[in-house]
Write a structure and sequence with these properties.
Layout (H helix, E strand, L loop, with lengths): L1 H8 L14 H9 L1 H7 L4 H32 L5 H17 L14 E4 L5 H11 L5 H5 L29 H20 L11 E5 L1 H5 L1 H13 L4 E7 L2 E2 L2 E2 L8 H8 L2 E5 L6 H13 L5 E6 L21 H11 L11 H31 L1 H12 L6 H6 L7 E2 H15 L3 E5 L3 H4 L18 E3 L4 H14 L3 E7 L7 H10 L4 E5 L17 H6 L5 E3 L4 H13 L5 E4 L4 E2 L7 H4 L4 E4 L8 E5 L3 H11 L5 E5 L3 H5 L3 H7 L6 E8 L9 E5 L8 H7 L4 H14 L15
Parallel strand pairs: 1-2, 2-3, 3-7, 6-7, 9-10, 9-11, 11-12, 12-14, 13-14, 17-18, 17-19, 19-20
Antiparallel strand pairs: 4-5, 8-15, 16-18
Helix pairs in contact: 1-8, 2-3, 2-12, 4-5, 4-6, 4-13, 4-14, 5-6, 5-12, 8-10, 8-19, 10-19, 14-15, 17-22, 19-20, 24-28
Length: 725
């Protein structure tokens, strides 16, 4: 364990003596050593003068951040000025003297990660990015919340340089922060060697009361404590205000005690409005404890400097021109100037940005030495950095053979075993359903506090956090995370899955027990509407493979789509290996499994997953009918095909019957009749449930004949031939 911690953390601090109930002022000497002792002795007059001038400039910088944030909201006549004004001291300390970052190269791998979990406070983040020299101009700040600006109403990764993750839905950001810290711990244990700590960054999060109230943060932070993520530091903006008013209306728990129970170090800064030194001391103390994540409760005043400070009135609306002018005057700025950065403030922040660039340059020198001593590791580091999978992975996956019928979750286990052997960047696990999801691959070691090099993650029964943690790991880079639960329980994870899609994070979601075919567990566990919800989500691929070959194809699609999350829905029950199934066909969304022996088809039978084998059996019962059998594992991929290809699969004028043991809704895009669910399922053995709801070859054949009779003498409309397709 010491070897792992040495590689991961660079040095081993003592395990005891780090926790204390003493005030931070008393602890300063222990943390700061000689520096704190010098502070207690008499200093020369010129030293005092220099120190006083520096402190005055820091206060001026803090107050200008408050002004600039309020100006942005005022100019947009929309936004949230209160939290940025209250959190400005935290941002000042982090960006001016604590964090390692490079405005000129924001994607530097070993940069400290910063997450603004209370994303509505984004005027603060945009202010800091501009002031420290990122490619966010003063004109971009003037366009706050405007169309196509770099400064949207909540932070969006991929839009604004320096924004790590998309935040706004409260609790997501702090949970992403846990994922970022997990990625750092794993990659540090994987790549660091004695004398070469190439991955040793911290993750800093600012969050508010709303994040603390959301259940997802409890799930994520519980796991963070279990994993001992000592490089995760959360600054909690404890301003006692939310939209409805005082937090005392609904939130009176002792947050610190809760986090101590999670296994976190908890520190408190009582004078967060003004004492930058208290903040520094707390952060340094947090950085010194590499065995526990740290929560720093920072008492602040929302909207500090406004006449409305300390009230809900400053939370989500501009403070007004008169109030803004008065605040500028009180802080020593010209009330007539708007978006004008004072020279001394600009110079101070740009110096901080330049210092970060120097840290990056020093890291590059370390990396160069690492490459000389460990060329193979360095080559793997650079490959992962590029995001390009190892050569030959697709061909190796395509060589898998399956000699007997398997549930597609069992096929998935075999494919995942091979894929994880080929792609060491794959990390993930299950929400306490490993024996059911079948996600633990051969040779996988658990990711635990003592073994962060492990690639298998025990997420526990924390579906929502599980997805958000994967978003954080994907955001870090170098990794492709996957996670698993029952398809029905992805409802718990829906908020974070949506953020995956919005953020273009290629997380792989493995969803087993994908229909009423799971049987005896009954309607509480049987998904009905789940796939429809997922299919309706933009930039999300939902695949439901019919057999083992299609499972191979589904994973190929997932790996190919590093900027698009994928849900792979898998059966509990056995699926026959279809003679004409194709891994490559999955990439087209739908393809023909069997065409009529001669002549044009009279009817098309189309299905997904375990129902394709049922339709294949139904074809045998329709011996006198020319049937085209189609597997459609992915609607979204089929919709992206050419009209010519769509017509070859679903010929115009030919009636289409669809079968899927989930909601019938949505199939009207393709099918003239649907055998699907319009109610919840029931508890019984799978075959009895399937018979109850008509998922049998006999019912499929009967419905096919009824559909043919309905369109006798009529031309079936081409449902996908629409002007909006």
């Amino acid at each position: 364990m010491d070897r792992v911690l040495q590689y991961n953390f660079g040095y081993l601090p003592p395990r005891s003596g780090l926790a204390s109930d003493l005030p931070l002022s008393h602890l300063a000497a222990d943390i700061l050593g000689p520096r704190s002792k010098k502070m207690k002795t008499s200093a020369p007059a010129d030293s005092k003068s220099s120190s006083g001038a520096k402190a005055a400039l820091e206060r001026r910088c803090v107050n200008y951040v408050r002004v600039l944030s309020a100006e942005m909201v005022q100019a947009a006549n929309s936004g949230h000025p209160g939290a940025p004004m209250g959190c400005a001291p935290m941002a000042q300390v982090l960006w001016s003297s604590v964090m390692s970052y490079d405005p000129k190269e924001p994607s530097w791998p070993n940069r400290d990660r910063f997450v603004l979990s209370n994303g509505h406070a984004c005027a603060l983040l945009y202010s800091m990015l501009h002031l420290t020299g990122y490619e966010v101009s003063i004109d971009d700040l003037k366009k706050f919340r405007q169309l196509d600006s770099l400064t949207p109403g909540h932070p969006e990764n991929g839009v604004t340089p320096g924004v790590e993750v998309s935040t706004g839905p409260l609790g997501q950001g702090i949970s992403n922060g846990v994922g970022l810290a997990m990625a750092q711990a794993h990659l540090g244990a994987t790549f660091n060697r004695e004398g070469f700590s190439i991955i040793d960054n911290y993750t800093f999060v600012i969050c508010g009361d709303g994040c603390m109230q959301e259940g997802i943060s409890s799930e994520a932070c519980s796991l963070a404590g279990h994993l001992g993520l000592g490089r995760l530091i959360v600054l909690y903006d404890d301003n006692k205000i939310q939209i409805d008013g005082s937090t005392s209306l609904a939130f009176t728990e002792d947050v610190g005690k809760r986090y101590e129970a999670y296994g976190w170090q908890v520190l408190t800064v009582h004078d967060g409005d003004s004492s930058l030194e208290s903040l520094r001391i707390a952060i340094e103390r947090a950085q010194a404890d590499l065995f526990r994540p740290t929560l720093i409760k920072v008492a602040t005043t929302i909207g500090f400097g406004s006449s409305k400070q300390g009230t809900a009135g400053v939370h989500g609306a501009p403070i007004g021109h008169a109030d803004l002018a008065a605040m500028k005057t009180s802080f020593g700025f010209d009330e007539k100037e708007f978006f004008v950065v004072p020279d001394d403030v600009q110079q101070a922040f740009r110096a901080a940005g330049a210092a970060g660039s120097a840290k990056h340059a020093a890291w590059k020198a370390v990396l160069a030495g690492y490459a000389l001593k460990y060329p193979d590791l360095a080559a793997e580091f650079e490959r992962r950095r590029s995001g390009v999978p190892p050569a030959g992975w697709r061909a190796a996956l395509g060589e898998l053979t399956f000699d007997k019928p398997l549930a597609t979750r069992q096929s998935s286990q075999l494919v995942l075993n091979k894929l994880c052997e080929l792609l060491p960047e794959l990390v993930g696990g299950s929400a306490d359903l490993t024996p059911s999801n079948l996600t633990k691959f051969k040779g996988a070691a658990d990711f635990q506090a003592a073994s962060p090099e492990g690639r298998y993650i025990r997420f526990g029964v924390r579906e929502h956090a599980m997805a958000a943690l994967c978003n954080g790991m994907q955001a870090y880079g170098f990794l492709r995370p996957f996670c698993a639960t029952f398809l029905n329980f992805f409802g718990y994870a829906a908020g974070a899955v949506r953020v995956s899609a919005l953020s273009h994070f290629g997380v792989i979601y493995i969803a087993t027990h994908d229909s009423i075919g799971l049987g005896e567990d009954g309607p509480t566990h049987q998904p009905v509407e789940a796939l429809l919800n997922l299919r309706a989500t933009p930039n999300l691929l939902t695949l439901r493979p019919a057999d083992a070959k299609e499972v191979v194809g589904a994973y190929m699609v997932a790996i190919d789509n590093s900027k698009r999350p994928t849900v792979i829905a898998l059966s509990r029950q056995t699926c026959s290996n279809l003679a004409a199934s194709s891994a490559d066909g999955v990439a087209r969304g739908a393809y023909v499994l069997a065409a009529p022996g001669s002549g044009a088809p009279q009817i098309v039978l189309v299905g997904t997953g375990s129902e394709v084998q049922t339709l294949e059996a139904a074809v045998e019962l329709l011996g006198d009918v020319r049937v085209q059998l189609v597997s459609m594992p992915c609607w979204e991929l089929f919709d992206a095909q050419t009209d010519e290809y769509k017509r070859s699969v679903l010929p115009p004028g030919v009636p289409v019957l669809a079968m899927e043991a989930l909601s019938a809704e949505g199939w009207c895009k393709y099918a003239h009749s649907v055998i699907g669910l319009r109610t919840f399922g029931c508890s019984a053995p799978a075959k009895e449930v399937q018979k109850r709801f008509g998922f049998t070859p006999e019912n499929a054949a009967q419905k096919a004949r009824e559909l043919l009779k309905y369109y006798e003498g009529k031309v079936a409309p081409c449902l996908y031939d629409r002007p909006d397709n």
